[in-house]
Design goal:
By secondary structure, the chain is an alpha+beta fold. It has helices at about 1-10, 35-50, 85-115, 130-145, 150-160, 170-180, and strands at about 15-20, 35, 60-65, 70-75, 80-85. It has one domain (about 15-194). A hairpin with a 2-residue loop joins strand 4 (about 70-75) and strand 5 (about 80-85).
Length: about 190
Amino acid sequence: MSRILLTVLMLTGPEIVCRLGPADPPYNAYSDERSTGDALELAGKVNAALVSWCRPNCPTISMYRNVTAADLMLIRNEGQVKLVYKPAFFTSVYDQYGDAGILAVLAHEVGHAIDGAMPTPWMKANWTSELRADAWAGCALAKMNLSSRALQAGLNALSKYPSPSHPNWTARIPVLQDGYTQCGGDASKLTLIR
Ligand SMILES: [Zn+2]
């Protein structure tokens, strides 16, 4: 009886859907702290860009900062989704790429969270979950209507900080482009991302 219960608990434990950066030191959820207002504001922009694609099945995503987290993590647990970032990672992305860098990496993670919530005809069946998250990131970048320069900065941030399971950047580019154009992005800005 207790063995069965243990198995069920293990099956439904937290699952790290996507992780950027090394998993060292180990993440300790007890060190989760409320995210900063700046980070929440950027997450709100990503949410607004993508919400129409998952409504009415959008997951509720909570966001935390945590010094023990990997750079950025999306964790699913018992139907809850949480995004956890390492404060030093956001500082570093912001220093290099500005707001657009943070928007882009958040959009990739939110893409994981909303993936599969609703049928999406343009999503290709042979894309892996990492590529689908990139397609959503491209979609979000289009919806946020960034300048060419900000768009390039966002893509550079995605390229610079892949997860260990992300495919090569050359495989990711066409998928990001596809998501971008499917969501109404200005194709003339896309010449910059090759
Ligand atoms: Zn990912």
